[in-house]
Design goal:
Blueprint lengths: L9 H14 L10 H27 L27 H17 L4 H38 L5
Helix pairs in contact: 1-3, 1-4, 2-3, 3-4
Length: 151
């Protein structure tokens, strides 16, 4: 399945998983609690913020934000949000998916969120890490040791 590596834009992957969560019927009758809607909104907002901070750091360092072409990266971004997570944009997408699951009041959406993480790890993040190791060598390997992939 190596042919899937770096082929589908991560935002599209997130939207596909989001559509699956949205379409999945909830097996439980959970009340339409305002608390769930507020919590969902908070998760979505945090996801947007985390993703935006990741993009902002890339733009500040004038490097590519194109996840399909990590070889075009001209600098290693390790400041700001990247001190806490190596993949804030993908973490933001995961938070979106979790917010959709809460909004839908479907605990089984966690399975699809986990599927998103697995897909991203194997077909996007690991290939990116190989390219970044080739491009930035020991600097990237040291960064990987000090900052986790997700959180």
């Amino acid at each position: 399945m190596k042919w899937l590596e770096l082929k589908i834009p991560p935002l599209l992957v997130a939207l596909i998983f989001g559509a699956l969560i949205w379409a999945m019927p909830s097996p439980y009758e959970i009340s339409n609690s305002m608390v769930l809607y507020v919590f969902s909104g908070i998760l979505f907002f945090i996801g947007c913020l985390v993703s935006a901070l990741g993009v902002w750091e890339f733009k500040k360092q004038k490097t590519t934000v194109n996840p399909m072409s990590p070889q075009e990266s001209n600098s290693l971004v390790i400041r700001g949000i990247y001190k806490f997570t190596r993949n804030p944009m993908y973490l933001g997408f995961l938070l979106w998916l979790l917010s959709f699951g809460v909004f839908q009041r479907n605990p089984f959406s966690l399975i699809l969120a986990a599927g998103f993480v697995l897909y991203m790890n194997y077909f996007q993040i690991i290939p990116e890490e190989r390219v970044l190791t080739d491009s930035f060598g020991e600097d990237y390997l040291e960064y990987k040791k000090s900052v986790r992939r997700w959180i």
